[in-house]
Amino acid sequence: MFITDFHSHILPLVDDGSKSIEESLEMLRMLACQSVKRVVATPHFYANDETVDEFLARREEAYQKLISAMDFEAPGIVLGAEVKFYNGISRLKGLDKLLIQNSNLLLLEMPMLAWSEYTVNELISIASSGNRTIVLAHVDRYLHLQKKGLISKLSANGILMQMNSEFLLSFFSKRKALSLIKNSFVQFIGSDCHSTTNRPPNIEKGLDVISKHLGKAFVEELVNFGNEMFL
Fold first, then answer.
1. Which of 5, 12, 193, 224 is the most buried (most CB within 10 A)?
2. What is the Cα–Cα distance from 161 to 205, expressed in whole angstroms?
3. pLDDT per residue over 94-138, tens digit each?
4. Percent helix, strand and coil across the chain, each to the nearest 5
């Protein structure tokens, strides 16, 4: 099975993730041991801190340094971004440059509060314009803050969702996590790994929970759907 980790902070020294090339390499080794074949590098992008082109230049520099240091068969790295949502983001110059490489997926990090009608409408507007598909990052963090029925409304408008593997591993959240997957509200699983110790790569453990409770076929369907999103 070709497993993709859809959310990681594995590039060295670009955000609050990996603090060194050595740590990034160790994270890649951990993912390889979990049968991960591809990892999407999604460093944080904050529009109020830098331009899209400045971010892309920093990301590319970190990526080149990392691949130059590889001396083992590591998972393939696909470049993307975890883009911080703000009201008006639809007008951001170069927004589509932040799509995950070889796909039309845009990973958005939403506010940790109840979203306004304006925010929801802008999300739907972004999703319905241009050749892009919105993926909401780690939805497990903020769906409980939203109005009832919002998740169905977003899904009906083609907005996809990514869950952190950690949500499947907690006794207190596992039931909710499995329900979201079973009802097809979540399409992607990511480790959101930041280091080798605090928030480490754990994609395999999350998939094992899905397999145990929903069946191996559910895991295969989830994995295959994600892989089909790459052009």
1. 5
2. 19
3. 999 999 999 999 999 999 999 999 999 999 999 998 889 999 999
4. 45, 20, 40
Say whether 204 sits in a helix, a strand or coil.
helix
- The SS3 assignment for 167 reads helix
DSSP letter for 219, please. Answer: H
Task: Give residue-wise pLDDT tens across range 131-154.
Answer: 899 999 999 999 999 999 999 999
Q: How many CB atoms lie within 10 A of CB 195?
A: 19
Q: Show Cβ contacts of residue 199 under 8 Å, excluding neighbours closer than 6 positions.
A: 166, 191, 192, 193
User: For 147-182, b where at least 16 C-beta lie within 10 A, e where not — what string?
Assistant: eeeebeebbeeebbbbbbbbbbeeeebeebbbebbe
- 222 contacts 184 by C-beta, under 8 angstroms: no
Q: How many alpha carbons fall within 13 Å on the CB side of residue 193?
A: 29
